[in-house]
Structure formats: C-alpha cells, structure tokens
Design a protein that fits this description.
The chain is mainly beta. The protein has 1 helix and 7 strands; from the N terminus they run ββββαβββ.
Length: 83
C-alpha cells in the first residue's frame, strides 16, 4: 500500500541559532497538530521541541546546503519569515 502524502504549505525563513549559524530554507505550516497560520505559531504552539527546515542552506558558517536541518527550538535566537 502506498504511503499517504501529507499536505505541504511552506514558508521561506531565515533562522539564527545560538552557535551563530544563520540558516535559510523552508518550513512546513502543515503539521500533525494541524495547520499553523503563521511561522510564529510553529515556534510558540505545539508539543514539538524541534523545527524542521528543508531546502536549507547555512548562510554564515559554511555556505553548505542540506536537504533538511532539524533545529532544537531552545537554540533558535530569531526567525525572519520571507513571505
């Protein structure tokens, strides 16, 4: 049986974390707990301790790209939605 695809509603973001890295990428507003109306809802609501950033690029430290970066919310200093 084929896996059921989950809906994706992405937003472009830039995130700075406590080690100084600045990461650009996308986050999905559709989650298991329902749809978030804003990027800030992903950070403030829900039980998940991590924020998943896909199509990610480390802009400050190395310029490297990764398909997915999983960030602990406790280490996020700020997030700038790009849309």
């Amino acid at each position: 049986m084929a896996a059921k695809k989950k809906p994706v509603e992405s937003r472009d973001v830039v995130v700075k974390v406590s080690d100084g890295a600045i990461i650009s990428g996308q986050v999905n507003l559709e989650g298991e707990e329902g749809r978030a109306d804003r990027v800030s809802d992903l950070l403030m609501q829900g039980k998940r301790k991590f924020l998943v950033v896909y199509n990610a690029r480390d802009m400050k430290v190395s310029g490297e790209e990764a398909s997915v970066i999983i960030l602990n919310k406790d280490h996020i200093l700020w997030v700038i939605p790009q849309d």
